[in-house]
Amino acid sequence: MPPAQPDAAQGSTQAKLSFLSSAAAFGEAVRVSVEETHMAWVFLAGDFVLKLKKPVKYPFLDFSTVEARESACREELRLNRRLASGVYLDVLPLTEAANGTLAVNGDGKVVDWLVKMRRLPADRMLDALIERDAVSPREINVISERLSRFYQAAVRTLLSPDEYLRIFIEEHERNREILLQVDHNLPRRELDVAFTAIERMLSNFRPVLAARALQDRIVDGHGDLKPEHICLLDPPVIIDCLEFNARLRMVDPFDELCYLSIECERLGAAWIGKQLIDDVAMRLGDRPPREVLAFYRVYRCALRARLSVAHLLEPSIRTPEKWIPRARQYLAIAAAAAKDIA
Q1: The three-state (H, E, C) secondary structure of the chain, written as one string
Q2: Domain residues of the chain, as ranges?
Q3: What is the CATH number assigned to the segment(s) 126-340?
Q4: What is the pTM of this model?
Q5: Neighbour order of strands in the sheet with 88-96
Q6: Taking CA 42 as the corner, what is the angle to CA 38 and CA 47, rounded to the nearest 5 degrees?
Q7: Domain topology for 8-119
Q8: Inter-residue contact 64 to 86 (CB < 8 Å)
Q9: Which has the closest alpha carbon to 263: 293, 299, 226, 294?
Q10: 251, 167 Cβ separation under 8 angstroms
């Protein structure tokens, strides 16, 4: 589905971007840099960050109105304070005066909403540290301790085993639909290996997987646990949780950890994921069977491969050369993990 367009009452998106890209938005003489994600624009200046959600609508989220974006901003603040309380500072209105002048937290008509955050040091993000080969086992142990406390305190979901299995079945069908399109030119052998392993798990090992829900292991988690969302401060902070769809945050902690392990492996640090899973398993007194961990890895790889190539279906593609190689990386990791699903 193409992105929804803002209506007249929401003001001009381009005017908002121009204003937020200027020092005037921050009230001081600072240089502003802008980063664009799939669902937002992020404006970085000095010690602070302002985040503006895109006026888009997809099957899994709706940011198409000012009211919807306000609600999503407030959820982002609430949820991210669980793992990054000192980073997520406020939700502020973007206002427009009668003469058309925009302001952050001004007195005019509210035309949008912003999340204000403290800026984190880029060189302390886990992905940057991996790139410099500057991560120690001790630092990973501290992350595992932080995540273990989070999962111990997290709200347990009310998903039944059947509902839990249905999530995987539905997403697997979407993965197949997108990844098997011929024009993506993805390696068929690795696709077949991944899909066969997933289907074998959902057929032969259903009780083992369903037991995770039956044993009350499914929590309201982070939802997007990636190296670029982990900052190794003292204590570490973990940002940018998935705020727009509660169902997508309903996860087994070890599903999230397998996702993080995949991303670390893709960056060349497979040891990090292995240590995190071992450490958290010890702290939680819980370790899923080998087949379940392998399933989570294969399933997450297929999902990430699908989301990678889905960028190529967008009306406006950012960095189109990036996505097929990225999908191939995920499928290679999936094929290796599939051997543990006998």
Answers
A1: CCCCCCCHHHCCHHHHHHHHCCHHHCCCCCCEEEEECCCEEEEEECCEEEEEECCCEECCEECCCHHHHHHHHHHHHHHHCCCCCCCEEEEEEEEECCCCCEEECCCCEEEEEEEEEECCCHHHEHHHHHHCCCCCHHHHHHHHHHHHHHHHHCCECCCCHHHHHHHHHHHHHHHHHHHCCHHHCCCHHHHHHHHHHHHHHHHHCHHHHHHHHHCCCCEECCCCCCHHHEECCCCCEECCCCCCCHHHHEECHHHHHHHHHHHHHHCCCHHHHHHHHHHHHHHHCCCCCHHHHHHHHHHHHHHHHHHHHHHHHCCCCCCHHHHHHHHHHHHHHHHHHHHHCC
A2: 8-119, 126-340
A3: 3.90.1200.10
A4: 0.92
A5: 32-36, 40-45, 48-53, 109-118, 88-96, 102-104
A6: 155
A7: Phosphorylase Kinase; domain 1 (3.30.200)
A8: no
A9: 226
A10: no
pLDDT tens for each residue of the chain, 342 residues long = 334 444 443 469 999 999 999 999 998 889 999 999 889 999 999 999 999 999 999 888 999 999 999 999 999 999 999 999 899 999 999 999 999 999 999 999 999 999 999 999 999 999 999 999 999 999 999 999 999 999 999 999 989 999 999 999 999 999 999 999 877 889 999 999 999 999 999 999 999 999 999 999 999 999 999 999 999 999 999 999 999 999 999 999 999 999 999 999 999 999 999 999 999 999 999 999 999 999 999 999 999 999 999 888 777 777 788 999 999 999 999 999 999 997
